[in-house]
Amino acid sequence: MKAFVFPGQGAQFSGMGKDLYQSSDLAKQRFAQANEILGFDIQKIMFEGSDEELKQTKVTQPAVFLHSVILASVMGDAFKPDMVAGHSLGEISALVAIKAVKFEAGLKLVSTRAMAMQAACEAQPSTMAAVLGLEDEKVEQVCASIDGIVVAANYNCPGQLVISGSVEAVEEACAKMVEEGARRALKLPVGGAFHSPLMAPAQEELSKAIENTKFMKPICPIYQNVVAKAVTDPEEIKSNLNAQLTGAVRWTQSVKAMMEDGAESFVEVGPGKVLQGLVKKIDRNMQVSSGEVPAA
To answer: What confidence tens digit (pLDDT) does each residue in 185-199 have?
Structure first.
């Protein structure tokens, strides 16, 4: 069985998507639709923009979404998933690719999500940090011991967990993580505390957008971040997607569940190879590859 996985924010790079644009008329149509929906030239920023421009949340999330969704569409018969998963933002990309949400509706959701998250970041100073070389349970215990908001946010792979919360709480947690034996605990260059209770204001706005979006039964199961198991019911998908902004990305658990359910290989659909690396760290014997644009 073949699993397809979709990357999230952080996978972007300057020049991304040029090969996709040249691949088909559908790709060109999607970029034109995106410019109109977003109200700015996302295509130009993706192709010619600086790294700093691409790091803006309102740009990053639509850019990675577009790359992934267009790639899935131009892969043709090579995109035949038995199951899918998306890392954070990638969950919406995956839902569009497996026909649970239409392209235009998915892009609008991504844009709403990005703007709401940016506003939440600006409302309260917050951050995230990567903790390396410590068991998940120990990271959770340290977070629980801190007097302030700090939680386990991204379970990326064994020995690599990202925490999220207020600046002071994250800094205190990092110091304690090292005391407890972490190889490293370092703050990340992000604008806020994604996947933590501090994203509650963004969740309220996204919830309205999700409720106003039509969700359909997907062509295959999606392993959603907050539950780390196969889901196909549209109402359950909506509920889990809404919970994701303040809930943890259980990537390790999701990949393991996909393997237990028969996944024999993983294909990353989108820019970069971050998820392939994480899958290999979860099971070094697993076959991984990148989705490819068909030769002209």
So the answer is: 999 888 789 999 999
Where in the sequence numbering do the catalytic residues fall? 88, 195
**CA pair distance 61, 9, nearest whole angstrom:** 6
Residues of the chain with pLDDT under 70: 296
| Residue-level length of the chain | 296
The one-letter amino acid at 114: A
What structural domains and CATH numbers belong to the chain?
Answer: 2-122+197-290 (3.40.366.10), 124-187 (3.30.70.250)
